[in-house]
């Protein structure tokens, strides 16, 4: 019997078998997230994405509620990269009475989404790119203007109070809600 042909055939069979089991495991993982999108992926090992950081913050429950109401959670959970200017709950409290409740209604989903998109830049704006007077186009199609004087950063005149890196970008916590200029 010639063993020169049996050994390579055996190794090839094992490789094919291993590849098939890996593909079926990958397919199983994919089917568990197919119904829910990126935000439903459970991963307690990796760095948290922007939505997971916001969801874990007691100061951003209003923002998270808005992301959910606008069906924008999966978008901001994706790989990005994104820069998100994230208003605190106190920032939303500064809006005129009833504004937020009105925006969270299902019939105002598109308007809410547009406001949220005005808080999102596609790309990462690290501190070095946050020079005074620079303007950036946001996901909504409108521009914001950065202020940076004496180490104090602002966006459209609203204070940036913290910077938080995320696995899919960066979060700048703001003490106000960005409102786009009228078109």
From TrEMBL:
<dbReference type="Pfam" id="PF02469">
    <property type="entry name" value="Fasciclin"/>
</dbReference>
<dbReference type="InterPro" id="IPR036378">
    <property type="entry name" value="FAS1_dom_sf"/>
</dbReference>
<feature type="signal peptide">
    <location>
        <begin position="1"/>
        <end position="20"/>
    </location>
</feature>
<feature type="domain" description="FAS1">
    <location>
        <begin position="47"/>
        <end position="178"/>
    </location>
</feature>
<dbReference type="GO" id="GO:0005615">
    <property type="term" value="C:extracellular space"/>
</dbReference>
<dbReference type="InterPro" id="IPR000782">
    <property type="entry name" value="FAS1_domain"/>
</dbReference>
<protein>
    <submittedName>
        <fullName>Fasciclin domain-containing protein</fullName>
    </submittedName>
</protein>
<dbReference type="InterPro" id="IPR050904">
    <property type="entry name" value="Adhesion/Biosynth-related"/>
</dbReference>
<keyword id="KW-0732">Signal</keyword>
């Amino acid at each position: 019997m010639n063993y020169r042909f049996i050994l390579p055939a055996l190794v090839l069979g094992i490789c094919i078998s291993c590849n098939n089991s890996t593909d079926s495991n990958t397919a199983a993982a994919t089917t568990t997230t197919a119904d829910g999108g990126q935000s439903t992926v459970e991963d307690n090992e990796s760095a948290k994405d922007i939505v997971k950081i916001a969801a874990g913050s007691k100061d951003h429950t209003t923002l998270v509620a808005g992301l959910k109401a606008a069906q924008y959670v999966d978008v901001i959970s994706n790989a990005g990269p994104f820069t998100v200017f994230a208003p605190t709950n106190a920032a939303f409290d500064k809006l005129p009475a009833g504004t937020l409740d009105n925006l969270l209604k299902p019939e105002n989903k598109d308007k809410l989404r547009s406001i949220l998109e005005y808080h999102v830049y596609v790309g990462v704006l690290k501190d070095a790119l946050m020079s005074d007077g620079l303007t950036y186009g946001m996901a909504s199609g409108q521009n914001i203007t950065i202020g940076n004087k004496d180490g104090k950063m602002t966006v459209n005149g609203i204070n940036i109070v913290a910077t938080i890196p995320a696995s899919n970008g960066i979060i700048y916590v703001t003490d106000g809600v960005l409102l786009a200029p009228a078109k």
